[in-house]
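Hi F.,

I've been meaning to write this up properly since the lab meeting, where we talked about keeping a consistent format for the predictions we share between groups. The idea is simple: the sequence comes first, exactly as it goes in, then the structure tokens exactly as they come out, then a line or two of notes. No screenshots and no reformatting. I'm using this chain as the first example so we have something concrete to point to.
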Amino acid sequence: MRIQKLIIQSFKGIESLAVEPEGQSLNVYGQNASGKTSIVDAVSWLLIDKDTQDKSPLNFGIKPVDAAGEVVPGMEPTVEAVFSLQDGGQLRLKKVYQEKWVTKRGNGQSQLDGHKTDYYWNEEPVKQSDYNERIEEIMSAQMFKVLTLPNYFAETMHWKDRRQVLSLLCGDITDQDIIADNPALDGYTELLDGRTQEAMIKILRDRKKKLNDEIDNIPSRIDENNQKIVSMEIMPEEAQASIEELTGKIEAKSEELSRVNAGGGVSELQVKIQQIEAEKAKARNDHRNKVDESLKVARVKVAGIESKVDESEKEFREASRAYIQTKSEVEDAEEKATQIVSDIESKQQIQPDPKKESAGPEVCPICDQEVPEKEDHVGQYDKYVSDFNEKKATRLKELKAHFDEAQKMVTNLTADLKQRAAGGEKARAKNVQRKAALEKAKAELQSQKDGVPEFSTEVFDSKQAALQKKIDEIRLSKKQEVDRINSEIADLQSKAEDFRKILRQYEFNGQLRARNKELQDMLKKYAQELDETEKALYLIEEFNKAKAHYITDKVNDLFDIVEWRLFKDQVNDGITETCEPMVGGVPYSEGLNTAARIKAGVDIIKTLSSFYGKSAPILLDGRESVTELPETDLQIISLFVSPKDKVLRIEQEEKEMAVA
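Output, unedited:
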């Protein structure tokens, strides 16, 4: 799309401007702050609601200001443009930024209440949402920025988004394209085995780390094993023969010790001691049985009396509970009778004329009827008095009958209470009598126990002591000989154990040497696997480098001036992704001058416009720093700083216009 006509009113530093470039490029000259940037900001605002710095109207000062820098009130910034479209048609767009004034209740003066924007599409008023949707159908806001602002793609857009666009320019690049261009990469596809490159790199790096750890660890483990290997002076055959010889001597000494321990008749004496112990146990048991038999009658008597005491205690507890319950019933009946007497006295005191000096009728407490006035209703009042006395007499008669019934109940319960008290006293006396009999029976049983003589083991203990004395004398006499033999056996066992240690050390040395052989084999295996892993990582790295060169060359072929650095070499010989334009080998962000940046921006827009098949006016600020732009048939609005032009001067195909 190209600008055919542009009209600007009261927009930033422009009071009024009307130009008709008819799709051709424009050169705008003027001093600083003369309104040059206002032109490109106006075009940007008309298309994407923001200025060239991506700011909204509230933030970029859309309204004109006076000499003191204050916003001029009442102004309505307006931008209108006619665009020629690529399908041959034309589009007229217009926006008006208006003040909203309101008069609040109670205040006769109008007050500014914000701003609103009116939108026009081919002179038809439309809503903002419809306007933006229609613009989006022509070209997205992002694409407008890319195709109109020379520095947007190279400087403002995130580098990952730039890479994504450039990858679309290149088209699909397969791994087979890279391998076909570099035969040394054969085997790359087989290496991945269906995995992604990132997954395989993680697998290989993890494997490499583990292999390096194992390789670094194995030598120290071998050294540790070597330090545990002990040099032996005695051969294992000699050690085994010495053990067998010493074992024979130990067996002979053990037999000699058994003969010494068995001599002197100690065993026979120990058997006799055990026999005496059995006789003593039998005598103690017979004595206990005899005593139990003599006390059997007394124990049975005590048990019988204890059973009867339990029965009498149970009878006394039951009589006590019955007495307490009957006593409670007597108290309840007496309380009921007292209450009836109180009710009778209360009813007797009630008079037949309870009328009180108060407003309104009263209710009779006897018949619950309304009491009439005596003076007004004589006949009715007399009937009320008659009914009152009759019901009062009936109620007193009923209460007297209840009282007689309550008195009768009190009399009966009182008699029952006396009977239960007598029964309880009788049960208590019986219980006291039985407890006295129980104490007497227990005393008789204890007297019989005290009269039984204690069992004596003196005779048996004396015999056992005499036999043990003989055993101690025999053992004391042969202790020195036993100690000598035990000492000789211990010495022989110590020597045999020394030779066994030699054999165990030989066996341990063999295990350590076998383990070292396993570790050395593992070291060779891990070294081979590490070499294969590093070759695999190197193949992936070479593939990535080849792919980087392939993609970079393919992208750079699409541009005339700009070259793209899409990859950076890393310290570890790998590469990492980036996306930065360069001109003449100088990176855009590392000292590239303004002229080169502008040329690069135009070159980028030219290529992207061709790729998308769409175009928009290029809004080029700082044009005075560039003597020559890349050749392009795109419409460019160039802003030149010109100290001599106090008023904007616009050139179009050798035509010159002055703008207030």
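Notes:
Confidence is low (pLDDT under 50) at residues 356-360, 655-660.
The radius of gyration is 63 Å.

If this format works for you, I'll send the rest the same way.

G.
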